[in-house]
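User: Could you walk me through two proteins back to back? I'd like the raw sequence and the structure tokens for each, with a short line separating them so I can tell where one ends and the next begins.

Assistant: Of course. Protein one, sequence then structure:
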Amino acid sequence: MKKTLMLVCALFIVLGAALTAYAAPEPPEAPSPPVSPKPDGMPAADEPVPEAEPDGSSPDPADYFEVNEQGQTYGFDKYDNVTPDLIAAIGLNGVHGYVYQTELLSAGAKRSPDDAVTDVPASIPLYASDGVTVLSQFPIGPRSDDVRG
């Protein structure tokens, strides 16, 4: 009886060792997620961020953006302290172009604290990088089919 018990225990030990050796291999390490390329015009991680000039003035936008034939800067509004004249935008029907920073900021602006903002346009022009050619419209205000009361 002792011999049988010892034999059964030995068999379990041998089978356990064999099963461990033939167990499913560990799964390989999960690959790191792919690095998606940065969208065109967006700063790379190592791209310098514009800082104020030594005299305290704002950085020159021409140092950070493309410049068109009219001398206007254009591109993505990607920095906190410098903005291009023409800001990249996507207009109606997915058309890619640029809106003038001044038009975007002044659309529907109050002229005094007592003014009601009633003249908000439904859209502003979306230009090509030349700042002249109108490609589409960029929606900014209430839609003409807006039925809210």
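----
Protein two, same layout:
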Amino acid sequence: MKYIKYIHLVFAILFMVFASVQFNDPDGSLWIAAYSSAALASVISFAGKMPKKVLVGLIGVTVFALVMMMPNTYASLVNFDPNLPHDPVITHTSNVQTENFKEIGGVGMILISLGLQYLTLPKVESEVV
């Protein structure tokens, strides 16, 4: 069980790779910031220095982002058209609909990482007064 903290290091490397491939994305600066923040949080958790309140705050922000993305993702799912052409202004690899799925997947991975960090926080013994 003591080696579980290394999963944070794996997530940190993964998020740094994700951030490094966002430069050609129209909203890349947003994703670079999100993935870099997740990588930093993972490194801090790996070091065992993550404050619980900060981690809970990051989880709250991530859940809020997921909730805000749900309407567009749901609309893309309901109105999915596999023959929709690629829009080079939005992304060079996919159309608007699949971009929503990719973005919510990225935020979901951040939430999974933060959740694992929360579950592996060191237990603090409370003092009895």
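The longest helix spans residues 52-78.

Let me know if you want the two compared in more detail.
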